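**Polypeptide and fold**
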Amino acid sequence: MIFASLIFLYLFLPLNLILYFFSKSTAVKNTVLLVFSLVFYAWGRPAWMLLLVFTALCDWKNAKTIEKYRGTGKAKLALIASLVLDIGIFVAFKYSGFLAENVNALFSSALPVPELELPIGISFYTFQTLTYVIDVYRGTCKAQQRFPKYLLYLSMYFQLVAGPIVRYTDVANEIESRKHGVIRAYDGVQRFLCGLAKKVVIADTASILVKKYMDADISSLPILAAWLGSFMYAIQLYFDFSGYSDMAIGLGKIFGFKFPENFNYPYISKSVSEFWRRWHMTLGGFFRDYVYIPMGGNRKHVFFNLFVVWFLTGFWHGASWNFIVWGLYNGLFIMLERLFKNQFEKIPAVIKHIYLILVVDIGFVFFYFKDIGKAFAYIRVMFGGGPSASSTDFGVTFMNYIYFIILAVILCAPVSQLLKRFAQKVETSSAFGTAVVGVVRNVSFFVILVVCTAMLAGNSYSPFLYFQF
């Protein structure tokens, strides 16, 4: 099940809200939320739910052991057990086929290549349960004594399958006791609908142009068409993933949880380093706090530490060499920006912004094509290695989508923040201004819901891109 579906919007979520808010105590609310979360996750493959529960149970028991025997060999053994179990399951499902293929190619062996279906969200909930066990071992949080509460943390459906990566310390107090309110729920609904519009209106529309040009015959692809295809893929990725994050954060607000932000308008950045401080921030925070800093951070072996982090970042996204190349590609530019920091800072802001867009746009070509040869062939076309003239079909397509492209580019900037500030000024100016802003806001979000519903009814199934990771 996905958020951007009619069955979720008009059956699953309303039923969940009704039962949840008719429950009086936090304990009952937690039970309702846990049951709905497990049903949501088991919707496609019930076996995946059993794997999730098994992982949660093992880590919950290990964390309790760590806390009970803190500072002893038993605590360290429990930590190692969790690390081996979590990483082992993760590697087995996600990387066993990739590793077997490469061993066979390297040593001319004939190892069987497993073809395991990847459980949805395993990349995200594995990191969450790892942070919990490590934080208990470090003493930065206490072990949860009741398994259902820990399972609720790990399985909350609005952030389970594609993030944000929520640490236990982010929601520990709210699992025990949280506040609900009309204003908070209303804000949550607005955030959810904004995310829904990002996915259904922007990302799914951009995917039409992505498939048209990035899946085309590369040898006959005009230069401008290649650039438009890669640019639209960058747009699709951003609005698809940030849209999911917005929906998750919005649903969290409705149910009384405050989740960390995951995106902060990355396309306004002026360096690759800044871009990755704004894109998928919870993933960056994980690698910073649990890999980069423990390895020495900025104190020693900085470039080696960056290499490891960006190798892992790429590999985390998928069991394919193109993701590793993509990760190291980004890491290389971050290293260069650090190495030539003084010279880089002197470059005009406009030039730095253009540089950032070009680097990210080209990088996402590696992200798109699992065949690295195709990725390089596509990039060659972007830089003049294909037909020089654009076809009539491209011109027609471009003009048909010109207003959509302009809208998508505008929405990559913090326009919503400007509109919020303007609305607040109007609201505080007079009672009439407050009424006008209220009406405009409510009508706007009602229109968003109607438009998204119509588009969902008319389109085929379109899962979130990050489900595959």
Observations:
- The longest helix spans residues 73-107.
- The chain has a mean pLDDT of 92.
- The chain is about 75% helix and 0% strand.
- The CA atoms of residues 12 and 408 lie 30 Å apart.
